[in-house]
Amino acid sequence: MADRRVTGCISAGLCLATAPDHFEFVGVRARPTGEPVDEEGAVAVLDAADRCPAAAITVATGSSPA
Fold it and tell me: Potential cystine with 57: which of 31, 46, 49, 64 (Cβ 3.0-4.6 Å)?
């Protein structure tokens, strides 16, 4: 499970290209879609965070309660 936050977006769009199910543009800035992030999605979200030229994506990972 991963929770994502976007601050300082410069509208490069790499997050949408990398993880389109998990990011969207609102106006000219990206934001998380609010969709749950499973293990496969977490890989895409982490990749998007790594590719962001503004380092605007923060990802918090953790396990959900059993």
Answer: 49
- Name the domain count of the chain: 1
Confidence band for 4, pLDDT divided at 50, 70 and 90:
confident
In this predicted structure, the answer to whether residue 38 has a pLDDT above a threshold of 80 is: yes
Domain residues for the domain of 53 are: 2-60
Tell me, letter by letter, the H, E, C secondary structure of the chain: CEEEEECCCCCCCHHHHHCCCCEEEECCEEEECCCCCCHHHHHHHHHHHHHCCCCCEEEEECCCCC
Residue 66 inside a domain? The answer is: no
